[in-house]
User: Which sequence fits this backbone?
């Protein structure tokens, strides 16, 4: 029996899972770390925190499993996309990573549009310039921290910094690189034209691989520290959403998934390059060789519920501690007492600006319709409904583009909520399914490593073998009709507030 490890370098924590070749979890460990917000709209993390979490959890799973180290064949890495990690000539971190949800780069997006017109950016990178993506962050550092930019010799994405720690290799793969705005998505390579326009040396960027290709093996000192062997192969891996697609079996046309983590994603597989000329959704290379995916991304999905819970639900937290249950289980139970529509209360989940469909770094969260009848439970349900409306915005655009979805899988932390799954089924007005495997990104990363190691013939065949269906939530006709009307009003609210958001940002 061979074994594989999937590492998911998330925003709140790193999770490392050891699987056997049948997809059975043998051991699992996680380690959390802080998020820093030195100014409104900024978001940073220390890459060294990710490194420490990965090394600690790798050692933990190898000890827990108690299997011969020689039987562990490969490691796949997944992680948060779009983050900027800058290293000096000695491979040392220069500054904290500016991560995916940071919105400081509005001026740099305008600079990019001066370098090339919007249509050209979409033609090459399949997306318009975006505040949350890596390229604008590079420009921000160049303009605002010239001393740090002058020291830079390597630019990596978060999971690729971990690859460097494990293997000493400066490398990346197509799915994560697609989110840098430096990448020719159709041709699956760095764009010389973009790099020339932005005056970024190509040698700063990692060597390019497909997601299931082997990029290196463990450094001897890392192998000793973690209890593994230096023969362990490290595959390209994938950005978190591309890895989750593999881990949930979304690897063929007609399949899609919704994930509710810190951000929210609606992700559909496509065997063709399909680009939204309006730039509202993102087209990237898939972790499946020769394929692509289209995804809508909302910034404040699970983040919205966590923010509300942390700041206004100390009673729920205390009760959960006393009962020794997950606080979200109590929330999940209580919101069922509130009717669909939360008694005319709508939440706009724009705590960190928004990507799909607005591409607006200045919009912010709103509770609309508050009255004296509303309780904390109403607000909790409204938060979950508002996130669901934002995800429905994404699905509507996919349909408009001709990307048909026959099967919607739901995963991520929010996917564990039975109430939220039903809400999505009603808002989408289509069945929503789960799979038995709960470790989407970690399993997807492990599958990619298994293909690289020759344990599986292909990504698709591995998914057929390992990913099994579980539960299904079907839409309720009456509730779906209620949500359809609320969703229409939800869409109008952004239009009505758009100019006011700009005024607020200017104060």
Assistant:
């Amino acid at each position: 029996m061979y074994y594989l490890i999937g590492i998911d370098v998330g925003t709140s924590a790193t999770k490392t899972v050891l699987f056997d070749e049948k997809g059975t979890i043998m051991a699992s460990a996680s380690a959390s770390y802080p998020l820093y917000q030195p100014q409104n709209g900024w978001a940073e993390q220390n890459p060294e925190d990710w490194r420490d979490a990965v090394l600690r959890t790798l050692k933990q799973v190898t000890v827990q499993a108690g299997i011969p180290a020689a039987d562990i064949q490969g490691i796949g890495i997944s992680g948060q996309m779009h983050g900027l990690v800058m290293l000096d000539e000695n491979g040392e971190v220069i500054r904290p990573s500016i991560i995916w949800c940071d919105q400081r780069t509005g001026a740099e997006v305008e600079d990019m549009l001066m370098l090339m017109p919007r249509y050209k950016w979409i033609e090459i990178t399949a997306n318009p310039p975006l505040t949350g993506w890596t390229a604008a962050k590079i420009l921000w550092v160049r303009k605002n921290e010239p001393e740090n930019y002058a020291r830079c010799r390597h630019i990596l994405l978060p999971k690729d910094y971990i690859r460097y720690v494990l293997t000493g290799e400066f490398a990346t793969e197509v799915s994560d690189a697609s989110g840098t705005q430096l990448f020719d998505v159709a041709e699956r390579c760095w764009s010389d034209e973009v790099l020339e326009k932005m005056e970024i040396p190509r040698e700063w960027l990692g060597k390019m691989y497909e997601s299931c290709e082997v990029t290196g093996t463990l450094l001897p000192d890392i192998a000793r520290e973690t209890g593994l062997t230096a023969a362990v192969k490290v595959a390209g891996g994938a950005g978190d959403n591309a890895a989750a697609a593999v881990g949930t079996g979304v690897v063929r046309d007609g399949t899609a998934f919704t994930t509710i983590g810190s951000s929210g994603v609606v992700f559909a597989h496509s065997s063709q390059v399909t680009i939204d000329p309006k730039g509202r959704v993102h087209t990237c290379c898939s972790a499946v060789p020769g394929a692509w995916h289209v995804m809508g991304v909302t910034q404040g999905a699970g983040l919205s519920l966590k923010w509300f819970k942390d700041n206004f639900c100390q009673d729920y937290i205390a009760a959960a501690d006393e009962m020794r249950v997950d606080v979200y289980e109590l929330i999940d139970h209580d919101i069922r007492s509130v009717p669909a529509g939360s008694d005319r209360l709508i939440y706009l989940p724009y705590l960190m600006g928004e990507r799909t469909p607005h591409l607006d770094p200045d919009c912010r969260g709103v509770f609309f319709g508050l009255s004296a009848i509303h309780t904390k439970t109403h607000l909790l349900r409204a938060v979950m409904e508002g996130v669901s409306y934002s995800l429905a915005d994404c699905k509507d655009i996919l349909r408009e583009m001709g990307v048909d979805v026959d099967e919607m899988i739901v995963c991520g932390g929010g996917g564990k909520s039975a109430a939220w799954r039903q809400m999505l089924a009603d808002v989408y007005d289509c069945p929503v399914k789960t799979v038995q495997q709960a470790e989407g990104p970690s399993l997807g990363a492990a599958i990619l490593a298994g293909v690289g190691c020759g344990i599986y013939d292909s990504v698709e065949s591995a998914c057929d073998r390992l990913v099994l269906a579980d539960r299904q939530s079907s839409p309720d006709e009456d509730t779906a009709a209620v949500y359809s009307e609320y969703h229409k009003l939800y869409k109008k609210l952004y239009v009505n507030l758009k100019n006011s958001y700009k005024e607020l940002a200017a104060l």
Q: What stands out?
A: The CA atoms of residues 110 and 137 lie 12 Å apart. The domain at 302-407+485-506 is CATH 3.30.420.40 (Nucleotidyltransferase; domain 5). The radius of gyration is 22 Å. The mean pLDDT is 96.
